[in-house]
Amino acid sequence: MTKAQTWHGIPREEIPWYPTVNAETCIGCGLCFTTCGRNVFDIQNHKSIVEHALDCMVGCSTCANVCPVDAITFPSRDLVWKLERERKIFKVVRQETREKKDRLEALKARAIAEEHISQSTTRTKMEVAGEFGEKQFLVKLEELIRDRPYDFVNLRLEVPTVKGALEKTPSFMSFEVTSTEQEDIQTFLSEVRALIAGNGLTLVSEHKLG
Ligand code: SF4
Ligand code: SF4
């Protein structure tokens, strides 16, 4: 036993629950050694030995169940039932149950929050093509974010030529939509898409960046 342990409030050293290996029967297969998650056993000279008896989990008998030659024995289960009754462990068990449920609830809530964050979008790059000049598209973009927690950054407008722009040659614009408060922007993206479509422009691509 590596450190002071208790079993529902009872000092572990007061509970004689651990395996005993019959060395004559044991064939040294190693199954108990590899199965036990608490490293109770060691294998020496082709035999299993119980090295850390008090690390055995009270009430567990998995190693005895899997031993192919029935070389492992445990005390009677009455020992555990008697302890439960006489040492009145259930007050402690009820408290441990509440604590465990709280821990699991907290873990679940954290997993849900992390899932939500991984699914939310806070930054998206959009590429748009079309005729921008007469449509006042930039002005409309500015109106869309006025007094709201969003912004358009890294905006680039590629106009083939000045004459081309005047002649309404299609141009290309890219920008990133962001939340200034690092919140999900998916609803706002729908508004941006509607603005693009409503102005006869084409949304060429949309990439989630964050
Ligand atoms: S499982 Fe049984 S036979 Fe195999 S090493 Fe353990 S005690 Fe020995
Ligand atoms: S009963 Fe369980 S915990 Fe105890 S030694 Fe066997 S496998 Fe390990």
Tell me the distance between the termini.
48 Å
Rounded average pLDDT? 91
Q: How many domain modules?
A: 3
Largest sheet: 4 strands, antiparallel
CATH architecture of the largest domain: 2-Layer Sandwich
Strand content: 15-25%
- Class of the largest domain, according to the CATH hierarchy? Alpha Beta
User: Would you list the SSEs in sequence order as H and E?
Assistant: EEEHEEHEHHEHEHEHE
User: How many DSSP-defined strands?
Assistant: 10
CATH superfamily of the largest domain: LOR/SDH bifunctional enzyme, conserved domain
Radius of gyration, in Å, reads: 34 Å
Low-confidence stretches: none
Small-molecule binders here are: iron/sulfur cluster
Which shape, going by the Cα principal axes? elongated
Count of alpha/pi helices: 7
CATH topology (fold) name of the largest domain? Alpha-Beta Plaits
Supply the helix-strand structural class.
Answer: alpha+beta
* Helical percentage: 25-40%
Strand order of the largest sheet: 8-9-7-10
